[in-house]
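Researcher: Let's do a round of design. I'm pasting the structure tokens now; please hold your answer until I've finished.
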């Protein structure tokens, strides 16, 4: 909301007050997610391919992020203008998994001001900042590109903060919810392998035990 001209959100019939909050925001365009398929990465990819081309000519940059992902830069508008002037077409921010004891309580600040601690997560250095005029295509989860060749910038000035593994209890509950929501129609749970029951151990990245251990290695990623 500090820099975007428009914030497009797709909501899957949420009942926790999210819709009401979004409807109150003057920059948000709220759309209904009609598919009711739970987590379906192939459907998500097809959706983004249909959605971003109509934004051409309206915006210099698009950012396609999940609800638990935030793009951070202390000078984000000027940095985007600089990348644009340099001919960059797609920016790959530096990825971090943020840590904590559950999601922080809202006190009016941005979430990264309240909870700035995290660990490096190269897999979340996702190429999700791009000029919509280009052709762009991602693999599942938008972790990398395929079948396209934009002018890339791997930038430490932009950071993707992933608020997903916020301690063991939060991660365990989130994993169970995501596993249940994966493959509702097909029965294929493969996309949720790291959320599956029994995926445990501090040495297994993204497990509840790993999320707890990550807190001991965390640092202020904003510095």
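Researcher: That's everything. Go ahead.
Model: Designed sequence:
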């Amino acid at each position: 909301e500090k820099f975007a001209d428009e914030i497009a959100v797709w909501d899957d019939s949420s009942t926790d007050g999210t819709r009401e909050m979004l409807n109150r925001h003057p920059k948000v365009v709220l759309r209904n997610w009609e598919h009711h398929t739970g987590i379906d990465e192939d459907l998500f990819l097809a959706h983004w391919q249909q959605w971003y081309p109509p934004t051409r000519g309206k915006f210099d940059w698009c950012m396609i992020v999940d609800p638990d992902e935030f793009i951070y830069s202390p000078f984000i508008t000027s940095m985007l203008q600089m990348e644009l002037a340099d001919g960059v077409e797609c920016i790959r921010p530096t990825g971090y998994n943020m840590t904590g004891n559950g999601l922080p309580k809202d006190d009016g600040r941005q979430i990264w001001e309240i909870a700035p601690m995290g660990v490096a997560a190269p897999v979340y250095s996702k190429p999700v900042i791009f000029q919509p005029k280009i052709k762009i295509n991602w693999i599942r989860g938008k972790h990398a590109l395929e079948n396209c060749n934009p002018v890339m910038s791997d930038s430490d000035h932009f950071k993707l903060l992933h608020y997903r593994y916020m301690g063991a209890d939060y991660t365990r509950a989130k994993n169970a919810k995501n596993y249940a929501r994966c493959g509702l129609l097909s029965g294929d749970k493969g996309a949720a392998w790291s959320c599956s029951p029994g995926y445990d151990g501090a040495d297994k990245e993204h497990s509840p035990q790993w999320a707890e251990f990550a807190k001991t290695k965390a640092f202020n990623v904003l510095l």
